Amino acid sequence: MTDTFQPNLDFNAVANAVEDGEALIVDIDGYEGPLHVLLALARSQKVDLLQLSILKLAEQYLAFVQQARRAQFSLAADYLVMASWLAYLKSRLLLPKPEQPEADEAPAEEIAARLAFRLAKLDAMRNAAEGLRTRPQLKRDVFGRGDPEAIKVIPSGRIEGDLYGLMSAYIAQRTKEASRTYTPALPKAYPLEEARDRLRRLLPELDRWTPLTGVAPFGPGPGSSGGQGPSRASYVASTLSAGLELVKEGALEARQLEAFADIYLRTKKAPNSGKESAA
Amino acid sequence: MSDAAYTEREVEALLFAAAGPLSDADLAKRLPESADVAGAIAGLQARYAGRGVELVAVAGRWRFQTAADLAWLMTDEREEPRRLSRAAQETLAIVAYHQPVTRAEIEAVRGVQASKGTLDVLLELSLVRMRGRRRTPGRPITYGTTDAFLEHYGLASVGDLPGAAEMRAAGLLSLDLPADFAVPDPNALGADEDPLDEGDAPQFHTDFLGEET
Amino acid sequence: MSDAAYTEREVEALLFAAAGPLSDADLAKRLPESADVAGAIAGLQARYAGRGVELVAVAGRWRFQTAADLAWLMTDEREEPRRLSRAAQETLAIVAYHQPVTRAEIEAVRGVQASKGTLDVLLELSLVRMRGRRRTPGRPITYGTTDAFLEHYGLASVGDLPGAAEMRAAGLLSLDLPADFAVPDPNALGADEDPLDEGDAPQFHTDFLGEET
Fold first, then answer.
1. How far is C67 from chain A (nearest CA, A)?
2. How does residue B204 score in pLDDT terms, banded at 50, 70 and 90?
3. By C-alpha distance, which of B148, B142, B154 is closest to B186?
4. Among B106, B136, C143, C171, which residue's Cβ finds the most Cβ atoms within 10 Å?
């Protein structure tokens, strides 16, 4: 261990920080990741980030994680990984340097310096973001002309759109394709109420035996395109059902000579004449 | 700066940024009570007299407008970039990723019939070209993108089109896609493609030959 | 009126009427060949200096805008600003100062994986665009800022980013961390990648191979 780091040994850092009111309030959601926490801690040391005491920082971070774990049991794994790594780095900084440095490991001081550098980089970007944010911004602080009157527009050769738009357009379609579902249109049925009303209107004309297929409306007719409206089968079926209801009411007679033969309908004339059969 | 000069600046900025003409009262409402709006207007009118932009009163309210004698300048002032329709954008994307692709294949991906106009627009804008003919019955024409397309989208080659991983990284691909979802590699040149015949479309033919080498 | 004064009027009117900033070339195209556009711009800048409306250069083009110190006046004009999240702001700054920069490099600086949506939002707002690909294995996509970014923040060019020179001098803008830099970062995969190591097979590469079949 070099002397450079000895003066910075300060195991009471956290306690002091608490006393100074500098301790971080544990707020995992406020920090996006370990680096952000480290940066926030480092800033509280109020020194040039490159001259940062990594030992002090490690102490503070470990305390932070300790505290955070108490508040939030499911502390993100990367916070813990960073904590253990910092503990390791700290131990290496504190231990006397081996005579024969291990070949595959950089000196601890160097790693510490790089961490400090990395924090300085992030800090620079944070400041830059703040700098950008405080610049006069269009439509917030400065304004262009509010009322560009209608000027004759001539389309230019320039085409609007960027690669991102192209990708989005592509994906929008491919995902549509991937999740395309087949939804058959439900066949429309000829409503029973409508069939009943129509049949009632037709009663005066049904004074002779008329085949059911002649009574049922033809609608758009067979082979009509587009599946608009109920099918012929639905017209026939609904008319038959309505007919049977009218038979039950005694307003209509129905007959079928044998199974599968045509069904004939006729208005019931006398209250006494029986119905032959109902299909 | 004197108060009067400052008020003049304020009125100038307000009139410039306002969506419509402003009356004296409109201006006074936005300025400190002591501000001399009429004085500021008079000052501005003098300052802008004879300039390319003038301060005029319309229906009792003030606005800046370009000088009448410069109207001839304003005809082609605003260059409106040509906006691709949604259909065109989608068709272009399919051509880009699936080239060489036939019209029928475009329709298969889009799930709708490609209107003749959509491809025509892209051909006319030189974003898409006829590449050749597919060696299948009917020998349908295949389409691909042009150098102008690459230029517009800042791509060095069609191989640089973002792949599935990058789409996922950009948050465009949701996770519930089928596992075998793949984005085709437009670099894989269609082996089942013939060059265009003479007379198919001379201008594109030349293009095509030029790029084959 | 002298020719120079007349050109100045014309440029003034053109810039005033334009919906967006105009470049010297845009202006020259609309004016007689002999017109001294640069002279006219200089004249206008002097004339408008310190006024309520100012002539500024953004993204290498010229526009009139209200003076920044009068922002407080413009409450009526203000659009509800779209607030960028802290993460988005930080990401935008990294893209701006480090461009061209890859997603992995952004993550390396921030120390966290760019959450889905952060880069998205910036792309969607047209503040950031895909620029090209890094010439490294996997050829990752690089990002940069757009003209809309410069226009929004009133910057003439990316060279005018505040503090960029100082940061560069301090080495804070270099993207390559020392090769053996080893802060463990379970989130930022590939953060410590050595750009020259051919042995790596980044995910994009694999992806393209997979798709070729």
1. 6
2. very low
3. B142
4. C143
